[in-house]
Structures are given as C-alpha cells and as structure tokens.
From TrEMBL, chain A:
InterPro entries assigned: BP-dependent_transpt_permease, MetI-like, MetI-like_sf
GO terms of biological process kind: transmembrane transport
Protein name, per record: ABC transporter, permease protein, putative Oligopeptide porter
Source taxon at top rank: Bacteria
TM helices/strands, residue ranges: 42-60, 104-124, 136-157, 163-182, 266-288
Family: Belongs to the binding-protein-dependent transport system permease family.
Domain ABC transmembrane type-1, chain residue ranges per copy: 100-289
Localization terms from the record: Cell membrane
UniProtKB/TrEMBL annotation, chain B:
Chief place of localization: membrane
PANTHER family: ATPASE AAA-TYPE CORE DOMAIN-CONTAINING PROTEIN (PTHR43297:SF14), OLIGOPEPTIDE TRANSPORT ATP-BINDING PROTEIN APPD (PTHR43297)
Protein keywords: ATP-binding, Cell inner membrane, Cell membrane, Membrane, Nucleotide-binding, Translocase, Transport
Superkingdom of source: Bacteria
Pfam families: ABC_tran (PF00005)
Membrane topology category: Peripheral membrane protein
Domain ABC transporter: 3-246
The protein's name: ABC transporter, ATP binding protein, putative Oligopeptide porter
TrEMBL record, chain C:
Keywords: ATP-binding, Nucleotide-binding, Transport
UniProt cross-references to InterPro entries, sorted A to Z: AAA+_ATPase (IPR003593), ABC_transp_ATP-bind (IPR050319), ABC_transporter-like_ATP-bd (IPR003439), ABC_transporter-like_CS (IPR017871), P-loop_NTPase (IPR027417)
Organism listed in the record: Bifidobacterium mellis
Entry-linked SUPFAM superfamilies: P-loop containing nucleoside triphosphate hydrolases
The protein's name in its UniProt record: ABC transporter, ATP binding protein, putative Oligopeptide porter
Pfam families: ABC_tran
Family: Belongs to the ABC transporter superfamily.
Domain of life, source organism: Bacteria
Amino acid sequence: MSWEHTDRPRLGLRAIFPGRLGFLGRMRVVLASMWRKASGRYSLIVLAMWILFSLVSRFWTPVPIWTTDGYRIWQAPSRDHLLGTDGTGADILSWLMAGSATNLAISLLAVLLSGLLGLLLVMAMVSRSSGVSQTVVVLVDALISLPTVLLALILAVPLGPSIAVVVVACGFGYGLNLARIVRPQALLAAESDYVRSARHSGVGSFRIFCTHLVPNVIPVLCVQLSMSAGTSVLAEAGLTYLGVGVPAGLPSWGHSLTTSVKFINVFPLTVLWPGLVVTMVVVALNLFGDALRDAIDPVTNSGLRAAVAAAGRSALRSGERQEKSAQSNDSGHHVENAIRTGEGDQSCR
Amino acid sequence: MSLNIDGLSLSINGRTILDRVNLRVADGQRVGLIGSSGSGKSMIARSVLGTAPLTASLSGSILVDGLQILGSDDRSLADLRGSRMGMIFQNPSTALNPVKKVYSQVELPLRRHYRLSTQERHRRVMEILAQVGLDADLAGSYPHELSGGQQQRAAIATALVTKPRLILADEPTTALDAVTQRQIVDLLVSLVDQSGASLLFITHDFSVLARVADYCYILDAGRVVESGQTQSILHSPSSPQGRTLVGAARELTLRADGGKHGNY
Amino acid sequence: MGTTDVAHADPILIGKGLTKIYASNGSDVARNAAVDGIDVSLMPGECLAIIGESGSGKTTLSRLLLGQLRPDAGQVAYQGSPVLRGSAAARSLARDSALVFQNPFASLDPRWTIGRSVAEPLLAAGRRRSGHLWHRRQDGTDLADRVAKVLSEVQLDPDRFMTAYPSDLSGGQAQRAAIARALVVKPRILLADEPMSAIDVSARVGILHTLQSIMAQSRQQADPSNGMSMIIISHDLGVVQHIADRVMVLSQGRVVEEGPVQTILDHPSQSYTRQLLAAATL
C-alpha cells in the first residue's frame, strides 16, 4: 500500500490509536473473555443479578417492605413469603432486594472514592520531587495505622449513623491501602525506558501519569478495587451492627443481618439468607477482579490484542477505500462504522 | 555421562514447542544447540533437567546414562540435578540468590548431595573458586557486589563444585559484554575438558558456538533442521536457518587474520 | 565505511572535560568517577561508536551528552551554545535528539499499540508547537501517514504492525519499532544505547542493516551538514565495524583509544583494544 498521498480524507486519531477506539466493542471482547471462564461467568451472573435487583427494587418488591403482619412473624419460607418473614413480620426477600440498592450504592461510592484517593496519592508518590514523594509515603504509612472502624466511629459523631460514614471510612481506608499496593507497580513503569523516552520527547508528567502509568497499573487496580467493593459490603454489615452504619429504617443487608442475628439459635434461616447473599456477592466480587484483570489487560489477553489489531486494520483500510472513491468528506462516521463492524466480525480465540 | 534424546515432543496447551527432537551427547563430548529465540532450545534443557512446566505434555525419551528422565519421580531427579548434572543459566544476576553470600551458594550443592566435613567442603569450595578465577576474598561477598562476569564465574562454580558428569549451559554468555563473553567461554571449555564431563551448550550465536562445540544441532520452531560437525556447518550450512545463523555470525565478527574486515 | 564529508563542518555536539562522579555507598571516601574528563565531538552526519565493557561509563557519558545528567565538571555544547539546565540549547537538544535502548520490550509501553507508541513523540511535538496542553486535534491522516512511513523505513509492514502490541512482536521487530519511534521526529542526533545486545544474533544483522540504510539516507540529503548523526554504544566491535565512522574506546571512565574505525581495526594501539578485537573474531 502506498502512504505517499497527502490529500487523503481525514482519518482521525482513532485510526492510529485503535487501542482507544470502540470502547463498547472493547468491552464486548472483555466480557466475552470473562464469560469463557467459570469463575468469570459466576461473578458476572451474580453481579448482574445484584444490579438488576437494585433497579427492580426501586419500583417493585414482592411485598412492600413496610408491610408487616404481627401474626406472621419468624415464618418459614412459604408461597407468600419466599424466604420467610422476620421478627416484625416483614418479608425477608423484599428487604434483601431493597437492601441490595443501598449496598450497591455504598460499594460503588466507596470504590470510586478509594480509587480517586489512591491514584491521587500514587501520583504524589511517584512524583519526581523526592520531597513530595517521601512525605506522602510517610503520611500514608502513618494514616494506614488508623483502623477503619475507629475512623467510622469518629465520623459517626458529627454525621450520625449514615451511608456517608460507611463510604468515607471505607473509601479512605481502602484508598490508602490501594496507594501502597499500586506504588511499586507505578514506580516500575515510571522508571521504565518507555517513560524515559516519552519524557525525552517532551511529554509532561501529568500526561505520562494518565497515559503510561495508569494503564500499566490497571491489572492491580482491577483486583484491588473489586476486593474493596467486596470488603465494603462486609464493612457495611459490621458498621451497621455497631450502630454507626446504615441508619435504622433504610434497608441494607447489614440491617437484615443485625435485626435477626440475636435469634440465630431459634430462627437460623432468617440469618442464613442475608448471610448467604453477602457471601455470594463478596466471593463474586473477588472472582470478578481476577477475571477482569485477565480479560482487560492486552498483555495477558491475546484475544483483545487480536480484536484491537483487526479493528485498527479495518479502520485504516476503510480510509484507503474512501481515498479511492473519494466521495465524502464526512469520513468520521464511516471510520467509526468500519471500526464497529470490524470489531463485530473478528474472531477472538 | 552420555545424553540421548529420542523423538522428544513437547506441547503446552496444544501448542507444539518441540517436535520429535533427536539429540545425542556422547561421554566427554561438547555439543552445541543453536537456534533463534522461541525455537524451543531452552525447553530442551528444562526437559532434561525434569523442570519443564507442569502444564507441558511430553513424549519420547530422554536417557541420561541409561536412566529415563521422562516419568522419573521428583526425588531421583533432584538427586541427579546438581550432583551428576550441572546447570548454568543465562542471567547470573537472577540465577544467584541475592541475599546469600557467594561461598554458601557454591557450598549448597555439596551440602545437599554429599556428607563431607566442614573442612573438606571448604577445601573443595575454595578449589573450585580458584579454578573459575574468583579471588578467595570474593567468597564472602554478595552477588550484587560482583560484576556480571564475576557473577557468571560464581554461577559456574556452583554448577561444577560437585564435579558433574553432564553440564547443561543455557546461553551462559548472552548477558555479558564481548570481552567477558570470550573469557567465560574459554573458561568453561577448559574446565569441562579438565574434568572430562559432557557439555550441552545452548546459544543463539554461532561465533560463540564455534569456540565451544565440535558437533552442533540447529533448532528452528521446535525441530532439528540441521546437525553436523561445527566446522563443516560453518563452512557450508545446508539449511536456510543454518545459513542465516552462520551469515549473521560472519557479518558481526572480524576476520581472525586482521585483514579487510567484514566483507565475506 | 562511510565517506562522510564532515571535515569542513562544525561539530553539532561537543563535550569538554566531562566528568561524573557517583558516590558509592553514600560515603565521600569511596567516590569513583564513572566518567573522568572526557572530550567528545560529534560531526553532523557522523556515526560515532562508543565501545567499552560494562561499567566503563559509556551509558553515563551518553546521558551527559544529551543533557539528561548534569556533569560534575565540564560542559556540553549543542550547535555552539552551551547546554545548561533550562537553557534554550538544552531544549533544542532534547527536541533534536532521540533514544534507542537496549531492551526493546522495556522501551515500548506493553499496553500501547505500536502505532500509538510511534506517534507519541509526534503528538508531543504538536502540543509543544501549538502551546496547548490538550492539543489533540491534529490531522490524523497526516499522523497516520507519517507513522506508516517511518514504520516502512524500518522494514515493518505498517498494515500489520501499526495496530499490534509489543507482546506479539519478536525482539528484532520490537527493536525496529523502537527505532521508528526515535526516527519519527526526524532527529538530528540518534543515540542508540546497545541497540543490538539484547536481541538474537540473526535479528542483529537486520537491525544493523536498518541503521545503515537510515544513515545512508540521511547522508544523501542535499545539505550534508543537515544529516542525522548517530552515537552508537556497544561492547562489541564486531557489531559496529560496518556502521561507525569513528570509534572511541572507553575503559574505567577514560578514553583509551580514539580514531577512524579502520585505523582502530587495523592498528590497535592499546592492549584493551586488542582484547576487544580478539573478542570479536569468529
């Protein structure tokens, strides 16, 4: 092929950076790779159900959660109450469904907060100014000794029991942890020859952090953040039990556990259900992190590499075709379409 | 000690790494195995040592002095490794334990395989260190305190301290600079000759191989594509891979007679 | 080999009395000079080989020459003006030079496609020109063309390699990609730090030919004083004999021998050089 033509229609940067193009197509390949493994499949199903139940519970639960029946307390599972009732006669399944929304929100916010905090700290830790980096390393080491529970108890003084207590305590604690775990990986990338060349070419430190360092710590981030999500589910249960977590009246899995755990000797089933849900979700999140790491990393996932290469090739080729027919100057859409279809028809083993 | 590899095939997850490899090292012979990266040459060494990846499926036969390696249990292989078989690896900085002193690393195979008194062990360790050209006062240093060449000398001492009868050297000079490379190769050849052991020398560089081995095998994509006397292959390689390797070696070396360089 | 017409031109890069001292173990007692009072000059269009065993200071010297390290004594001048931290000469030296490292897989981001890695210096240059921090709206066609062109120059099929990841490449291919990345901004000085020692001997020849053709191309330019100069660092005389015009032999931070490649090969004056020659014979 000839590359000498100068008046070719604009291809756009996406043609050369196929690594960044077609986010949806990329995600499709990633999900397909995860689905191929049993652990990935399990985690995807459980997490999809979690999200689904959270959405559905906003509009509908089998029994409205505030409907209680004093004559039907501690009931065994039945046709009316699939998982039975608790000590107030409320439907356990409905409460668990409603609780899933709260827990999902807590997990997402905690992950978001810890991710942001962690990356911010890592950015300071790999800073080229040794004053900044050493100060932050010492600061993180000092702060990490502060237990999450203690932090939550302190936060509960001004805030009272609330979601914010759980989110901030988890986000803060996990963010510090994340920074410590990600730092060596980020340093490895920061001292690599490719970063040296990028710096020599005049690429700024912030851009190097965003484009070289972050992509190269994504495998660690995937595992750590999904473990944090799992741990935040456990933390919610623990903090709610202590009375500083989710306030009474707001359904959550921790709440369901707390209200029934005193009666575990008498009515074990009422404790079993929320316990089962929490365990399933935490296991799923941990497996999800591993599966996502393997699937999203082009270094380990050859299928993803092949997909990206094929998509880029078809984008380049479509640029050539347009050059030959030389018809439209609105080539952007064509390229995007070519990328989409290119990604649709490639095989990834 | 002789090594007989017959029809060795190795595949990992359905991908063929080695394809019916036949290779012979007679007692006291120095044999070279040459191939570009990814040709599977290291996998042959690992198969002989019994350290091929657990996911690999092997077939064929590997006889070391009549003992079948394939299917042998770990225990008897471990007894063989480091006592009658010695190994030298490519990168001495990772082959040596960074937190142990050179002396104790060289001593380790003796401790593992023989019941010797401390004095006897000490005598043997100092003897081999002198043979590989390491000063006695370097025995107490850690690997990072040594240069690359000294590290490789220490690694060779570790491999040879038990007077093995078969030595496998997997690219022992690749990580070193040209002058050190030459020194290490010459050292290895003289030590092997002194002890009368057999040597399987793996490399990708014909100019190194030509100094080491009388007979060599050329490996490409897991198959032996050519074998014969090193000198005759050097003069008239018959396979395309052989021609590439020999041509590269000729182009990247000077002529020994000091004449007009380069142009062959 | 090359008959370069450099006699009348001014050196593009001059280093005078360059010295760099590393304090070992943090103590002042055991200070040893990695580079000890070295004078270097590089002509436009010239290929200078710096030869020496590991630890002889060749990498330190190269980093001093490109202004990546500050010398403890001595000075570097680029196109006649002294290279000082933050000076205009330092900036133009950084802009006009490019690096190739020993390990190609360490010099390409494993999570970037080759096309993106090769385009990175171009994009950075574009941002610098426009002075805009978030400058991305460059003409992608032009960019793709230049990336493809430079990939063809190093004998990599752009159609296949532009969208490939480093892990799908062999050592030789990855090193070609790294060379393409260095060449894409049309540098005046190319610094190759042991570009062949981490790859197979058979692939080394290919890299050597690529570097030779790049030098030949830059010499064919109308104005020879605009040609690209190359500093190639190696421990192997055999590798650089075909490409270098001049050889500088380093030992323990000092220049032990210097001269045209043919002279060094035919009449080595130092015993260390003779060892190097002996090591490079078949």
